[in-house]
Structure to design on (169 residues):
């Protein structure tokens, strides 16, 4: 269910399915993430008229970027003050590098079933870890009990309000 950018409000979470029209390397990474952890392969935070996401670094993107593959979720209990704090937390991390180590650890945990050692690092996280931290640290609303969840693990959060791909009949 693609979202409409005009319907987004600050503090919402965008979870993305793999994009069929992206460059081959992005599609291969999306396929690996989807194969490893479930249908969602990316996560972003809705700010004021833009998205904040962790790609190679934390950056802003237009609201329309994932409109054809993104699912929008409201966070239960998110007030306008908490949304502002969440977005402020995310904005202060613009330019922060991506956590390649976290992707390798996720692969070891999910695919090789190797338990996480020293998993939580305060700076270098994946896109979904960034979204979870923004909600937890910025708004005081943890989305999961996992310190650095995958995008699909975020989708199972009881705090995210909205339909899931597997809810379709």
């Amino acid at each position: 269910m693609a979202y409409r950018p005009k319907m987004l409000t600050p503090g919402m979470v965008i979870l993305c399915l793999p994009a069929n029209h992206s460059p081959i390397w992005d599609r291969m990474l999306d396929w690996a993430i989807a194969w490893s952890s479930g249908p969602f392969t990316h996560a972003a935070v809705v700010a004021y008229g833009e998205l904040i996401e962790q790609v190679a670094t934390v950056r802003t993107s237009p609201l329309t970027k994932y409109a054809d593959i993104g699912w929008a979720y409201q966070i239960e209990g998110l007030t306008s003050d908490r949304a502002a704090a969440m977005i402020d937390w995310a904005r202060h991390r613009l330019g922060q590098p991506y956590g390649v180590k976290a992707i390798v650890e996720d692969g070891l945990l999910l695919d090789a079933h190797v338990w996480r050692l020293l998993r939580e690092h305060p700076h270098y996280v994946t896109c979904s870890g960034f979204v979870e931290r923004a909600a937890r640290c910025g708004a005081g609303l943890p989305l999961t009990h996992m310190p650095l969840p995958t995008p699909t693990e975020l989708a199972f959060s009881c705090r995210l309000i909205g339909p899931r791909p597997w809810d379709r009949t």
